[in-house]
Design brief:
The complex is a heterodimer of chains A (288) and B (400). Chain A has eleven helices and four strands, in the order H-H-H-H-E-E-E-H-H-H-H-E-H-H-H. With 288 residues, chain A is mainly α. In chain B, the strands form four sheets. A six-stranded mixed β-sheet of chain B has the order 7-6-8-9-10-14. In chain B, strands 2-1-3 form a three-stranded parallel β-sheet, sandwiched between helices. In chain B, strands 11-12-13 form a three-stranded antiparallel β-sheet, with helices on one face. In chain B, strand 1, helix 2 and strand 2 form a beta-alpha-beta unit. Chain B has two domains: 214 residues, Response regulator (Rossmann fold, 3-Layer(aba) Sandwich), CATH 3.40.50; 128 residues, Response regulator (Rossmann fold, 3-Layer(aba) Sandwich). Classes of the chains: A mainly alpha (288), B alpha/beta (400). At the A-B interface, helix 1, helix 3, helix 4, strand 1 and strand 3 of A face helix 1, helix 2, strand 7, helix 7 and helix 8 of B.
């Protein structure tokens, strides 16, 4: 029974990591850049919920998603678009700069101390001796639905297929009449929407928010994306869930618990040694 | 379309740039002099940004409050005090630079660092230059290792031992668990001493831990769900997150028992401590809800001067306030003995003067520790730089 609780917990946490990892992986696949400000979108999403929570929780969630989409697009337009074609290092540094900018701005506006954001007191499901919070269960259920929806979107819609086309070969896609800028913008919008939802579900599990809130899940999700194979959508999902389950299983064993993070990152190293492109990453043949 | 977008963007960015300016106007209500030749110069480093900024900010504000009060009352026979703090972001690697900057600017006396990890670096540097420091809140046992270092807070081992003594007397026969931060000197230091001093009759204790800025403890509460008493040598933010996750998982009649890091757990914005069914208590040196005595006066002044929503007071701040006053009183006593003290006294001379006071018969009456009849607590120091004052067990909230 205890192991089942650990597993449900792990899958739920993994669902959150997967949602964030999808943002990393899609942006990498399509714009070929590592958007290190992605984790901070989660934090912004959390604060956006906080601002409108007193009005109406549903409205707050909708506002948060819209605000994050807007922010994602604005960041892309203002910070990354002018650098298209610049060296990857310049883009990387800019992303880190955007990350610090968002964190500092949040600290100036909301202060450094953590704020509690209680969207709804959902309580816990009690089965005999054990109990598990509804927040965890809802997160798990929603993340499954979201991942299925995203997969269908990419596979079945015209925009989705255009996204795959851009990630496979940008120039060929352009020649086929795909508007690259438009696709990149949509990618950022979807990534940011997923990040804001990840923020929402994190708040259901842990109802606190602070300016550096997005940093750790951001790094973990990035790790998940690399483990799964960066650029691969199913890879991000697999990596996220794997990492979430490993984290919870490690934390449930007292003697192993202090080394949880070391183990998580060790898995990354091992996988990169065995399969440098990640579990589901595609091997690209380099033309010389 | 394109130019409109650019115009809007420019406007938004300009406004964004103005936010810090506006915010700065608000938090700097209290101005204290910065370093100059004619003043006695007190310097420190601590986190003003990042995850632990809330401690550094409280320390900075409280120290400023003490300095401005002392200056208003005429300083040390007319010599004013000045204060400067540099942000170390709770990162040991930033301390050497901050320390050098302060020293170059003429720092004569230091309050050390706000947190332990950077403090371990700081003590080495200040020892080489023979600079006196009295830290408000770096609780590590090794902080006052050298003769120039003193603490206003209890050292970790003190808190761990005192807690174990309390457990031995009051919680015999209960199942004890511990929730700690495995990469934090404060947390592991206290826990080690706690386990050492705990009676064998308790058997082995159940432990769960976390690292860094982790905040999701839904798994950790499962590990401790059978415990009667949960010892939590951690700071209040993760503690509140743990208690939230444990509301219905941890036994309803269990007790959360923390150390001074738990001070302020009932003042977190949006966290309703009464929604936690279990008892919450801690062993500390400052009661942030004090309604009588010198502590209450200080709390009132702090909340009048600063924005207590954004920059809440905690025991770190109270200790910093005591630090500045203790240094002031010690200088006053030294001056009465005929020592020559002013803005030109070298840091090393200052160190010798203060060391002699603090290890001598000097006794300071302040706001941290157990208050006596006059509303103030009695505080003195051992030769090793550890503080002598009485801890109080403080019940934040009874069990429902």
């Amino acid at each position: 029974m205890d192991f089942l609780i650990t597993l449900v917990n792990g899958l739920s946490l993994g669902g959150i990591y997967a949602m964030i990892a999808l943002g990393y992986t899609m942006v990498y696949g399509i714009a070929k850049m590592l958007n290190f400000a992605h984790g901070d979108i989660i934090m912004v999403g959390g604060y956006a919920i906080l601002v409108f929570l007193s009005v109406n929780p549903i409205l707050a969630i909708v506002f948060s998603v819209l605000f994050c989409i807007g922010l994602g697009i604005a960041v892309e337009k203002a910070a990354y678009k002018p650098l298209r074609g610049a060296s990857p290092l310049a883009v990387l540094i800019t992303a880190i700069g955007v990350s610090y900018f968002l964190q500092s701005l949040a600290q100036i506006i909301f202060g450094a101390s953590p704020k509690y954001v209680i969207i709804a007191d959902l309580g816990s499901l009690v089965i005999g001796e054990v109990s598990i919070s509804y927040g965890t269960i809802i997160t798990l259920a929603c993340s499954i639905v979201i991942m299925i929806a995203l997969t269908l979107f990419v596979k079945l819609t015209k925009t989705g297929r255009a996204m795959i086309a851009v990630s496979e070969d940008k120039d060929a896609a352009r020649l086929m009449g795909v508007n690259i800028d438009h696709i990149i913008m949509i990618t950022f919008a979807i990534g940011s929407a997923l990040a804001s939802l990840a923020g929402l579900f994190s708040l259901l599990r842990v109802p606190t928010i602070m300016p550096t809130y997005g940093a750790l899940p951001g790094i973990k999700a990035f790790t998940a994306a690399v483990i799964g194979g960066i650029g691969s959508i199913p890879g991000a999902m697999l990596g996220g869930i794997l990492l979430g389950v490993v984290e919870c299983v490690c934390n449930s064993i007292p003697t192993v618990a202090p080394y949880t993070m070391a183990i998580e990152f060790a898995i990354l190293i091992v996988i990169l040694l065995v399969k440098p492109t990640g579990i589901l990453g595609k091997k690209r043949r380099e033309k010389v | 379309m394109k130019t409109t977008f650019k115009k809007v963007l420019c406007l938004v960015l300009t406004l964004a740039l103005m936010v810090p300016v506006l915010a700065a106007c608000k938090s700097d209500e209290l101005e204290v002099p910065s370093f100059s030749d004619s003043t006695i110069k007190i310097g420190l480093t601590g986190p003003l940004t990042g995850g632990t900024a809330v401690y550094g900010t409280a320390v900075y504000n409280s120290a400023k409050l003490a300095v401005s009060e002392i200056n208003e009352a005429g300083g040390l026979d007319g010599i004013m005090f000045s204060l400067e703090m540099i942000d170390d972001q709770h990162k040991p690697e930033l301390v050497a630079n901050s320390y050098a900057t302060l020293l170059e600017k003429g720092m004569q006396i230091s309050l050390g660092t706000v947190t332990t990890a950077p403090g371990l670096e700081f003590k080495e540097l200040s020892y080489e230059d023979n600079v006196f420091f009295l830290t408000p809140s770096a609780t590590g046992d090794a902080i006052p290792e050298y003769a120039n270092g003193f603490q206003m807070c209890f050292a970790d081992s003190n808190q761990g031992t005192a807690s174990a003594v309390y457990f031995n007397e009051n919680y015999q026969g209960k199942k004890v668990g511990a929730f700690y931060k495995s990469d934090d000197e404060y947390s592991t230091g206290i826990l080690a001493k706690f386990e050492e001093s705990l009676d064998d009759s308790f058997g082995s204790i159940v432990k769960a831990s976390f690292k860094g800025e982790e905040s999701d403890f839904n798994q950790q509460v499962q590990a401790l769900k059978d415990c009667d008493i949960i010892f939590m040598p951690i700071y209040y933010t993760p503690a509140s997150q743990f208690m939230t996750a444990g509301k219905s998982v941890i036994k309803a009649n269990a007790v959360y028992f923390g150390c001074d890091g738990l001070d302020g757990v009932d003042a977190i914005d949006g966290f309703d401590i009464n929604s936690v069914p279990q008892e919450v208590s801690y062993l500390s040196h400052f009661n942030s809800n004090a309604t009588t005595g010198a502590a209450a006066d200080f709390i009132k002044k702090y909340n009048e001067t600063f924005d207590s929503e954004k920059e809440p007071l905690n025991q770190f701040g109270a200790a910093a306030y005591d630090c500045v006053y203790a240094i002031f009183e010690a200088l006053k006593a030294a001056k009465a003995e005929g020592k020559n003290i002013d803005g030109s006294t070298s840091a090393s001379e200052m160190c010798e003067i203060l060391k002699a006071q603090f290890t001598g018969n000097f006794e300071y009456h302040g706001i941290t520790g157990k208050p006596e009849a006059d509303g103030k607590s009695s505080i003195s120091w051992t030769e090793n730089g550890f503080v002598n004052k009485e801890a109080v067990k403080y019940i934040v909230k009874e069990a429902n």
